[in-house]
Amino acid sequence: MPASQARPVARIAGDRGISASASVGAPTSSTVTSATTGQTATVRSRPATSTSWSTTQPTNWPGTATSTAQTPVAAAATTGHGPVSRRAKRDGGTGAVGGPTCMALTVRPGGGVPPECGAGYGGQVRDPNVSRSVAGQLSVERRADDLRRLRAERFDVLVIGGGVTGAGAALDAASRGLKVALVEARDYAAGTSSRSSKLIHGGLRYLEQLEFHLVHEALTERGLLATRLAPHLVRPVPILVPLPAEGGVRDLPGRFFRRSYYGAGVAAYDVFAGVFGGGRGMPLHRHLSREGARRIFPSLRPDKLAGAIRYYDGQVDDARLVVTLARTAASLGATVVTSARAVGLTRQAREVTGVRVHDLEAPAGSPDAEFEVRARTVIAATGVWSDDMSRMLNDVGLRPGFRVRASKGVHLVVPRSAITGETGLILRTASSVLFVIPWGGHWIIGTTDTDWRLDRSHPAATAKDIDYLLEQVNTVLDRPLTTGDIEGVYAGLRPLLAGEADSTSKLSREHAVIEPMLGLLLVAGGKYTTYRVMASDVVDRAVHRLGWTRPSRTADLPLLGADGYAAMWRDRADLARRHGVPVGVVEHLLERYGTLTLDLLALVDADPLLGSPLAGAPEYLAAEVTYAARAEGALHLEDVLTRRTRISIETSHRGLESAEHAAELMGAVLGWDEATRAREVAHYRARVEAERQSQLMADDVAADAARLGAPDVRGFAADRGTDGDSVELPSSR
What we know:
The two termini are 38 Å apart. This protein is of the alpha+beta class. Strands 5, 6, 7, 8, 13, 14, 15, 16, 17 and 18 form a 10-stranded mixed β-sheet that branches. Strands 3, 4, 9, 10, 11, 12, 19 and 20 form an 8-stranded mixed β-sheet that branches. The radius of gyration is 25 Å and the shape is globular. Helices cover 34% and strands 20% of the residues. The chain has 23 helices and 22 strands. Among the domains are: 200-319 and 407-488, D-Amino Acid Oxidase, subunit A, domain 2 (D-Amino Acid Oxidase, Chain A, domain 2, 2-Layer Sandwich); 565-707, Helicase, Ruva Protein, domain 3 (Orthogonal Bundle).
């Protein structure tokens, strides 16, 4: 795409002509440096205010007047992309809002922190000559080192679960100076955290229920993510609320009421966003006539439409945010290991002192596969597996205080060409709402809400689920969708929090933190959007137990790739010219990696073949697969095709045409021989075939049986929970 046609800085997810620009001032410039090769690129930035956050450069949010992207000097200090600023050296920190932090990244044997760093980050020392992005690289060599640390050291906090809450808790604890470890049975975001609607909700639906505290919380977190913590991953998406046409002229009072009712709710949403500070610069809602609604969404049926209201929410690649959280925690000294399954608690008397862990990547029969990890406090952020912990507590005569019910949510993915529209849709159904969300070159349609009591590691969509979603969305589309339009299907499980009673309580929309046994904290419930609040709450309890007083710092801690993002986006055309790639490639990388884009461009510079599209998936570069294995902790082919990329749901072949090429690229990094590559491809093919078969089944039981026809690549058996004395604790969330 020519630079002159590039999209404006203030981008909108799924933008097809809706855009906004922000004010600009006189630019300054500095350099950012690749963490892998040392190559530099000039990044221009606007003048900063008295704080380290620029208030004149644009952010993702259309029309914003405030940005939380740092100046290049502060960004270089926090990312290591360039020289450490004088201010950072003077303060002994990064220059980020929230006070001084230690710029040490190299692990000191046995942990510990130098006096000049105070308590430091994660009980580790960082070398000022090593960038955060390098320190946060989750390579196979890093995994081996971290396994040795798990066996040899005692941690302040051990987190079980590598979903958004667990990764967020590890980051929160590490940023307070605690010595932190995280173990995840499968892959980052392997459970619920990669199977959401990809929305960062501001809590619009909570307004209708008058739960203003939840609206406040959600809007605040949405604003932090989009403007400060992860502007490269979270962006605004316009959503249309169609107003139905019913009863002709006789229904004019009803139409007036519905427009007033929905309009008042969305107006209140805008007001709360401004008051709570979570919607800085966010466009206000707008009322549209029937003709106006069809101009921006031509696929809406005119006979079912009286008008519409457009509002904005946030969108995120959920799995990518989780791996970025884990990498950021690792960059601050946390020990993070996947394919490490917690299989039981260790305790002395009535106090938990650690966890027994099984390394699922260890050779079969290895005597070192299972070991004990010692910790002063264990945090279980296990989502729909929380009841496994509850049963373990019941065995020693304790009651956990809550129950977690798994609710299945199914989504469909169809090509962008199947529906003509510039915004998302939110539709009322008999029991809930349905979203139609633009997702790059695709649409995501969902979701369902049904109980699920079968295999929790691999929830399966049924033909009934798919038919329901098609039926609901076709009520408003002028060209009905069919199963032939479907590119991908995915099912996830929501961990709904209930009380001791059988029915789901009000708590299902909130979260809870309890300490059922000394040394053990359980966190459950909540929403993806408010993961940081959940993480902060549970770490607060851990800090109190350990006798510390340090508050959470994560509201002011940008994730890897966030610092300098706005400036790099503005200069994407120059960056593309310097590296000899199209601007569209740089835009794609910036929206997935932020300023870590330099690392991927360095890979392409070193091997131009990595700049080619991945076979069967032209939306992705081969370099992204290599980078996933080298820096993002991907250990298996499905980790890349289902979570580091979303090829498994974005292509009609479900990633089968990409599997061989991706396995070749991963194998070059991970040292796979031909037999290992063939085994990985075979596992992935079996997974895809089992998912396709399950989606033809009429009910959950049959779909579950079909899905379990494919063996788990990490060796998991069917996981329907335990009623006996088993202490196995799957930890994905």
